[in-house]
Amino acid sequence: MRPALEVADIFRRHGDDFRAAQRGRLSPDQRRVMAAIETCRTAALGGHVEQCDDCRMVRVAYNSCRDRHCPKCQGLARAQWLADRQADLLPVPYFHVVFTMPAPIAAIALQNKAIAYDILLKTAAETIRVIGADPQHLGAETGMIAILHTWGQTLTHHPHAHCVVPGGGLAPDGRWVGCRPTFFLPVRVLSRLYRRLFLERLQAAFDRGELEFFGNLAGLTEPAAFARHLKAFRDVKWVVYAKRPFGGPEQVLKYLGRYTHRVAIANSRLLACQNGRVRFCWKDYRQDNKSKVMTLDADEFIRRFLLHVLPKGFRRIRHFGFLANACHTTKLARIRAELRAPEPAPTVEPADYRERYAILTGYRIDLCPICGGRMVEIGVWPRTPPTRRAPSRCDTS
């Protein structure tokens, strides 16, 4: 069922005014995302015409934009990704480790997204790999899935990496080395190494001339100023924390389903868009996840949403160690042999996209909403270019 209010509705009502006010300050990626969300599942993208073979009811099913920032387009992608991961699960404890960065470093990341976010994910993986390989801790090759999130509950910029890690690894002689059921690696040790590696890689990127600075960070273009800026964060605590281990593989998939294809805000959190202001609910993690309501001007809501547009082609979900794409088939087979775990059953992909959708999501899109009969495609709905409304500074709808 369609939510009463969607991000797309806010963009359609206030997007033209926002673009006009921002003029040249919006990046091509941000403009592309706005256009995709505005036209998603509308006549602008075309679609197909269906008719019930029983009651003869006719409906038009419009195409999705399939943009990864669109709140409406993540369901099928998430379901397919989870189905693909089912075969990778092992009968071992799984741990959830989160890597964050101080706010002033996050400000640099906002102006250098592709480089800084890449450093974040690779440094998180390298930190777990190095500490895991240390004989004083695990002494084995680890594997992990790293997921980039860039937002907080109120849509502010808060880049961090969620890492899902099997509790153990492959020893140099090929044996599986398991960790303790409730403890993976020491967080304090992880934090210190993560801080050092991150700052080293950020400095290296600066030395290669890859970083850009503008606005209140423009002074950091000078090498001495940048070095002083980083030095201030070599002795402060960088927050790395481990959540409670998952209960089993099923809980891992349930967790991944919530996090992998999440966008900055779900449509279900939106409450109202009236008189040029947007109301949405959020959880205050500092007050035991207490539910609260925030109200923002529509322009500020759109600005915050667009903070989280990723550079085109950036991979926000990555696999490392024995879960890396290049080697996971061979190494997972070796691990299952060590654990005497059965091989996963082969999956068969149905040719019909409606059957595939039903299998992945549990929802039938080929049934008539009126009588339950089968919907049959009878034609194509052509693309219809959207018409722009005249900009208005106040929208009371």
Helix content estimate = 25-40%
Tertiary shape: globular
The N- and C-terminal alpha carbons lie at a distance of 21 Å
Please state the oligomeric state of the protein chains shown: single chain
Low-confidence stretches: 390-397
* Total DSSP helices: 11
Tell me the total number of β-strands.
13
Mean of residue pLDDT values: 89
Q: What this model shows, in words?
A:
This protein is an alpha+beta fold. The chain has a domain of 205 residues. The C terminus is likely disordered. The chain contains 11 helices and 13 strands. The strands form 4 sheets. Strands 8-3-5-4-12 form a 5-stranded antiparallel β-sheet, with helices on both faces. A 3-stranded antiparallel β-sheet has the order 2-1-13, with no helix packed on it. The chain has a 3-stranded antiparallel β-sheet with strand order 9-10-11.
Give a summary of the structure in a few sentences.
The protein has helices at 7-22, 28-39, 75-86, 103-111, 113-133, 187-207, 223-231, 249-259, 298-306, 328-339, 353-361; strands spanning 47-52, 58-62, 94-99, 143-151, 157-166, 168-170, 176-178, 240-243, 270-274, 277-284, 290-297, 317-321, 375-381. It has 397 residues and is α+β, with helices and mostly antiparallel strands.
